Amino acid sequence: MKPPIIKNPKGASRFQRYSQRLLTGAFWVGFAMLLRPLLTLFAWYTGAHLFNRAMFERDGWLSILKVPFIYPLVVVAIGGVLIGWAIYNQLRFQNNERRTRHPEPLTSVQLAHFFQVDEEQVRHWQNRRRIVMIHDDRGNPREVESE
């Protein structure tokens, strides 16, 4: 069975489709006109009349036209400041490494002493790809799972 025109808009003629859209739009405009007093009350309560005065009566919309020309200048200025700061830091710190040296790696003896376990157990953990260590309230290893 062929679907009705409502579910198949391609089955309607161009005139029917456009007249339906026009009629729908006209009813939405009529609905908005009915709501106009309520919208006016809401606009008055929220201060939209101040927006109207600033934008239209005092030609505030002209300043909005300047925004697309000002924003690229601001972006270029901020970019220039950041690039200048990076160059300044590079020139200032290029031969001056102030980071602390990394400490020497701990031996398995030191780790075994810290965790209060056997040194052989620490070597076993170090040879594993992944370990999960569960600690008690004092930080001592309670359980160790290794793969």
Task: List strands and helices in order, with pairings.
Layout: H1 14-46, H2 48-57, H3 61-93, H4 108-115, H5 119-126, E1 131-135, E2 141-146
Antiparallel strand pairs: 1-2
Helix pairs in contact: 4-5
GO biological process, one term: cell adhesion involved in single-species biofilm formation
Protein name: Poly-beta-1,6-N-acetyl-D-glucosamine biosynthesis protein PgaD
Transmembrane segments: 21-45, 69-88
Tell me about this structure.
The protein is mainly α. It has helices at 14-46, 48-57, 61-93, 108-115, 119-126; strands at residues 131-135, 141-146. It has three domains: 1-58, no CATH class; 60-93; 108-146, no CATH class. It contains five helices and two strands, in the order H-H-H-H-H-E-E. Helix 4 (108-115) crosses helix 5. The longest helix has 33 residues, at 14-46. It holds the Pfam family PgaD. InterPro entries: PGA_PgaD (IPR023829).
What's this, in brief?
By secondary structure, the chain is mostly helical. It contains 5 helices and 2 strands.
